[in-house]
Amino acid sequence: MAAQAGKTGAKAPRRARIKAQGSAQAASRHASAKTRQPRAQSPRHGGSPARENQPNLNRLLIVSSIAICLLVAVMALYPALRDYYLALRSVEQLDAELSAVLNRNERIIAQITALNTVEGVEDRVREQFGWVKAGEEAVNITGLEITDSTTVLPTAVNTNDVALPSSWLTEFLDALFFIQSDTSPANVPDPFIDQ
User: What is the distance, to the nearest Å, from the Cα of residue 51 to the centroid of all Cα atoms in its chain?
Assistant: First the structure.
């Protein structure tokens, strides 16, 4: 224990001397700083105006880099996105045509079903040929417009007569991809290909 106390005691005056020297050096530096001319601070210490503008420059570089990358991505993906959109519009057109054909087929099936009965055949013969049964009188009325005749098959579906489904989104995308709404997507020329 006594040996430890002796060692710490010997170190204590040495620490005091180092402390005194450090404070004397600090005081002399402080005094000389007052008499010296102020020097320009180097960019390392954060005092120059160029250093203060550095974060703004970095932010501008990052934003412009992102904008350029997005522009390049849009330019690279635009043709593929347009083709994809045209395919979706073609599928919508074909779905609309299919539903029109199915509707026509249902009307034809209803006519066939009616002709498979005796009453249906009688109605068809009366309508188409003007025949009457024994004891009936035929009356011919003119000037009336018949909207749905059972004697005539429904007309075939014309692909140009089937309208594409439309919404605000499809109108926006048609304008974005230069598609005219009065033409079907299959007939739309590509504006990026010379014709």
Answer: 41
